[in-house]
Amino acid sequence: MSPRQASGVLALAAALIAGCAAQAGPTKDTSGYLTAYGAPVRDSFGDCWHTREWRSGMRFSDCEPKLAAAVAIPINRPPALKHARLPVEQPRPAPFKLATDTLFDFDSAVLRPEGRSALDKLETTMAHASHATVQVIGHTDRIGAASYNRELSERRAEAVRDYLAAQGLGALKIEAKGVGSSQPSTARNQCRGMRRAQLIRCLQPDRFAEVTITGTRS
């Protein structure tokens, strides 16, 4: 057999092998491939020969590597947020300070008419607020014994509590207590050297009732 004949036989064999492979794979575009008898011509390494018309993305038989199958990548989604609740407004103190000289006479726990009028105005203010609790604290000046001042401050606080309850405020919500002269507003040496009426006038800021409302203002 001559070399030319041998070459033709090899080419024919290669074409037949390629034809068998072509039957197993898809045929989509042959314009970019060198073919023989409908099958791609391959080199000694089994790779298909491309023509000048070949462009990236062309596929014929099994000449090109198979496209990798798309792999779904799981996405970690944040958990669904529950409906956020709006913060509830918490009760806050709404303090009122009333001078006991308006509410009471000196060394007395009986409400004066002017004192009742002041408490009426306070009750009107409280009617426009949602109150949870009311605390009344009675105070006295430092004239007299500490035990007596505490008892007097308690009676004054109770008088204010009873009057507010009579105006329609819930009695169970009102707490009354006295602290005597333990929390003065004046300095210790502020009225030093004074006596009787002058001392009573000087210590007036220490004689007050403190009404603290815990709730929400309108």
Count of runs of 4 or more consecutive helical residues: 5
Largest sheet: 4 strands, mixed
Quote the beta fraction: 15-25%
**Can you give the helix content as a percent range?**
25-40%
Strand tally is 6
Low-confidence stretches: 4-27
Mean pLDDT comes to: 76
Judged by helices, strands and strand pairing, the structural class is: alpha+beta
**Strand/helix succession:** HEEEHHEHEHE
* Rg measurement, Å: 51 Å
Q: What is the terminal-to-terminal distance?
A: 114 Å
Shape: rod-shaped
Strands of the largest sheet, in order across it? 3-6-4-5
How would you describe the overall organization of this protein?
The chain has helices at residues 3-24, 100-103, 113-127, 146-166, 196-202; strands spanning 35-36, 39-40, 92-99, 129-138, 174-178, 208-217. The N and C termini lie far apart (114 Å). The protein is of the alpha+beta class. 32% of the residues lie in helices and 17% in strands. It has a four-stranded mixed sheet. Strands 1-2 form a two-stranded antiparallel sheet.
Concise structural overview:
Helices cover 32% and strands 17% of the residues. The protein is an alpha+beta fold and 218 residues long. A hairpin with a 2-residue loop joins β1 (35-36) and β2 (39-40).
Keywords:
218 residues; four-stranded mixed β-sheet; 17% strand; alpha+beta; 32% helix; rod-shaped; two-stranded antiparallel sheet
List the topology elements.
Elements: H1 3-24, E1 35-36, E2 39-40, E3 92-99, H2 100-103, H3 113-127, E4 129-138, H4 146-166, E5 174-178, H5 196-202, E6 208-217
Parallel strand pairs: 4-5
Antiparallel strand pairs: 1-2, 3-6, 4-6
